[in-house]
Amino acid sequence: MAVISGARYTWSDSVNEKIDMSSALDILRPTDTPLLKLIGRDSLRDACTAVKHEWLEDEVRGLASAVKSSGTSLNNTTDPVSFDLSAANEAYKFRVQDIIKVDDELMRVTAIVDSDSITVSRGWGGSTAAAHADSSVVLLVAPALAQGQDLLGARSTTKVALYNYTQIFEEEVRVSATNAATAKYAAGSDTEREIAKQFEALGVNMERTLLYGRKVQPTSALAAGAGAMDGILARLSTNVFDKSAAALTETMLTDAIEAMWVLGAEAVTIVTNSTQKRRINTFADAFREMPYAQTKYGATVQRFETDFGEVKLLLDRHMPSNQVLIINEEKIGFGPLSGRSLGITKLPPVSREYDTWQISGEYTAEVRLEKSHALIKNLATTGLF
To answer: If you average pLDDT over residues 162-178, what whole number do you get?
Structure first.
């Protein structure tokens, strides 16, 4: 035992001091799930009752096509003329007697040659016949039937069956008997705190799966045969814009929203991480003013207004830093297999030395009408502000 001469100080006699430790436990929680909160954790349009969750989609039949870039050309004024359309079965969008428009010229369809080509008469209604470049839009204006015209045949679309698989989300909490019996500085139950943390972690797992998931058919009870669900990004194919490391611009956002609008969709929410959100904030830099007496500085863009609608912004730390997602959340659903919502069970003990709780649930997602969403990818992430 050390002998101390003179006065006693805290730095020379600290063994008997009570440790100053708050009973409130501080913890960082980067576990917010804004996208899942927006869409809802029980928002499937139809209840999921099987590991393969299926739904039907349909759309109004196409009213436009394009001149095929490598087919029989319309780069002439031949009358009549047959030409190829942009894809197989595109000719079935048209019928004899339809009036079509290519650039400023009107034409009348006189024959359906095969599944991807039609014959037309030129310069309908006094319009001027002209040569048209490959990939020119072929717009169906309307049919023009003669009086007493016989039936020309019905046109319709075929419904598409789509599906996703369910995915099991699971975490465990195991607490030793010794740990449970030991007094803690932090107030409350340490076990309950650990369980709450695992629920938060599972929320992040669900949010990331809703974004990044790829569906895998379950094939066995083994780990290699586990089923998995598609997320949003895996379902998008139409409105996907690769920007080759260019900085995000207002025009890029507007173009993507317009592309959705052209297809009949409505953009509702822009989902972005902090990098691209800060980039969007800079769009307003040229218009900011700050009175001399104002002591609060800063501005943030919360809504993006275009000719095609006003879109709100959602900041999500789980989005990739080089991507911006534009969605209509009404066309997205997330929810459990019937009877398999997220829950917790204390497992039967196998030893007096520890207790185990299992948290699990089985969920799937619907990303309906993928043309209702858009993705801008491969954006620059540096030199933006």
So the answer is: 94
3-state secondary structure of 259: helix
Backbone angles phi, psi at 148, to 5 degrees: 75, 15
Please provide the DSSP assignment of 133-183 as one string: -TT-EEEEEEE-PPTTPPP--------EEEEEE-EEEEEEEEEEHHHHHS-
Residue 220 scores a pLDDT above 80: no
CA distance 248 to 376: 9
* The model's pTM: 0.82
Tell me whether strands 52-57 and 160-165 are parallel, antiparallel or unpaired. antiparallel
Instruction: Using alpha carbons, select from 3, 149, 133 the residue that is nearest to residue 76.
Output: 133
Q: Which amino acid is at 51?
A: V
Q: Residue 34: how many CA atoms within 13 Å on its side-chain side?
A: 13
pLDDT digit string, tens, across residues 55-69: 998 877 788 889 988
How far is Cα 380 from Cα 56, in angstroms, rounded to an integer?
37
| Mean pLDDT of the 374-381 span | 98
Other Cβ atoms less than 10 A from the Cβ of 381: the count is 17
CA dihedral in degrees (267, 382, 274, 228; nearest 10)? 70
